[in-house]
Structure formats: structure tokens, C-alpha cells
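Task: sequence design from structure.
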């Protein structure tokens, strides 16, 4: 399956952000992609999360997701993107990733579970974490009928190997990390190393896509089950398209069956 990572520079104009998504999705489809992936907060982004995120939040049945769905259908492509989702039970919205199929169906919705309360940031002051910390995954179908199981992470989730392992246990073949990775000392190195580590330890592909500077670091990349970087972007808005072969995942797991050799399991504590 051909997968595109679309590195964009979202801002506070949701209409302009939608146009960025539309152009990148068209470019991905032209490159033969079956799946195009956009960053966290593709809908609305600024340097610091604040009350304005709640002001622009919409339900997944709202006009922004409807517009994303229209793009997916028009381009005959599965589209993954970050939105700000309205929350009926809290003043804080959710930081949500949606997966929209080329048939217009919402295939999955993942609400970020690990909020970025680190490096002096307090995302949880303004964003509500997922109430259910379960891993989210779904099967996507390419133009030729091939299927690929994708798992979802959002940015800071990349630092939590337990989630990556849950997605491996769910038979994910490609894990998508939609991000707005905050710049700072050592952050670029950590981004790259963590992406490769999740791929190596779980024997699956990892596609990590980030917003551009100055808000984020850019540097979107995709690693194969051995941790080899198949493609990597710099800091400007751009697109990278690679072939993801699910058979490579299963060959890697047969060659190096560490997932079957574990002697420790994770028990979720309520």
C-alpha cells in the first residue's frame, strides 16, 4: 500500500488549514497514495494551547470533518488528520485523530490519551484526555484491494512504549503518530530515535508526521520494522510517499519473534 505523510504548517485559520489539506491530499493521490496522513491539530494550531481551541472545536459530525470527508471521497483516498473535537461533558475539547475512508465512512476516532504536561507545557489545562485508554486501530483498504491494519498515536504518546505494544498485540502493521512535536534541546534526536525504537521493538512500520516550524520541528519520517528510515522530510511543508508492505511485518516477526518470547505482560490498572 502506498502511504503519504503530509507535513503542513497549520495556523488559526481553519479555512486556510483545510485548503492546505486539500492540496496535499490531491498531491498524495496523484502520487498513487492509498492513504494520506496529516499532523495533530491539522484543523487548528498555535504555539500554545489555550481557550481558543475550545472555541473552534466541533463534533466529528461537524463541518470540518464533513469537508475532510469530501476530500477523501473526491481523491479516492483514506485520510487521517488531527482535529479539535467538541466535548459534551467538559469545557475542554478532545485532541482527536480521525480516519476517513474513500467511501466517506468514519473508520476510526482516537482521542489523545497522554497529554503533553511536560517541558513546562500543560496541555491538560485546555484539552481533555480520552476517558477510555484503549488502543485504537482499524483496517484500511487500498485501491487494489490490499488491506493494512493501522494503529493510532498522537505526539506525546510516542514516549509510552506500552501503547505501542498494545497496538502490536492488536496486529497493527503500520502505526501512525500524528504530531505537533514541540521544538527544544534534543527534541529532534528524540523524535527520530523514538520513532525507530517503536518500529524495532514491535516489528511494524511507524509513520510519524509533524507540523512545521516554528510551532513544531517538521522532520516527518517513516521507519520499517527493522527501524530503517525509508524517507524523511526537512522542515518545510512537503510530502513523502512510500510503499508499505504488510508481508514485511510478518517476515520480520518470524525472523525475530521477540513479541512471542516475552515473559512480562502489561496489566492495565484502573
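Answer:
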Amino acid at each position: 500500500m502506498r502511504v503519504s505523510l503530509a507535513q503542513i504548517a497549520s495556523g488559526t485559520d481553519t479555512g486556510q488549514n483545510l485548503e492546505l489539506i486539500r492540496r496535499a491530499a490531491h498531491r498524495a493521490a496523484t502520487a498513487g497514495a492509498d492513504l494520506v496522513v496529516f499532523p495533530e491539530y491539522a484543523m487548528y494550531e498555535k504555539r500554545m494551547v489555550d481557550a481558543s481551541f475550545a472555541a473552534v472545536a466541533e463534533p466529528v459530525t461537524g463541518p470540518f470533518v464533513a469537508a475532510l470527508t469530501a476530500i477523501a471521497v473526491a481523491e479516492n483516498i483514506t485520510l487521517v488528520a488531527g482535529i479539535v473535537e467538541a466535548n459534551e461533558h467538559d469545557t475542554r475539547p478532545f485532541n482527536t485523530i480521525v480516519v476517513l475512508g474513500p467511501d466517506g465512512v468514519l473508520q476510526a476516532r482516537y482521542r489523545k490519551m497522554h497529554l503533553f504536561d511536560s517541558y513546562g507545557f500543560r496541555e491538560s489545562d485546555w484539552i481533555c484526555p480520552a476517558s477510555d485508554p484503549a488502543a485504537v486501530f482499524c483496517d484500511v483498504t487500498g485501491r487494489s484491494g490490499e488491506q493494512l491494519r493501522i494503529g493510532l498515536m498522537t505526539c506525546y504518546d510516542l514516549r509510552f512504549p506500552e501503547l505501542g505494544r498494545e497496538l502490536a498485540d492488536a496486529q497493527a502493521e503500520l502505526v501512525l503518530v500524528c504530531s505537533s512535536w514541540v521544538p527544544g534541546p534534543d527534541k529532534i534526536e528524540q523524535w527520530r530515535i523514538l520513532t525507530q525504537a517503536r518500529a524495532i521493538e514491535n516489528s511494524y512500520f511507524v509513520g510519524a508526521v509533524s507540523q512545521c516550524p516554528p510551532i513544531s520541528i517538521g522532520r516527518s519520517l517513516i521507519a520499517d520494522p527493522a527501524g530503517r528510515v525509508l524517507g524523511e522530510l526537512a522542515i518545510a511543508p512537503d510530502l513523502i510517499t512510500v510503499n508499505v508492505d504488510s508481508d514485511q511485518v510478518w517476515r520480520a516477526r518470524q525472523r525475530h519473534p521477540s513479541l512471542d518470547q516475552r515473559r512480562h505482560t502489561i496489566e492495565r490498572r484502573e
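The first strand starts at residue 2 and ends at 7.
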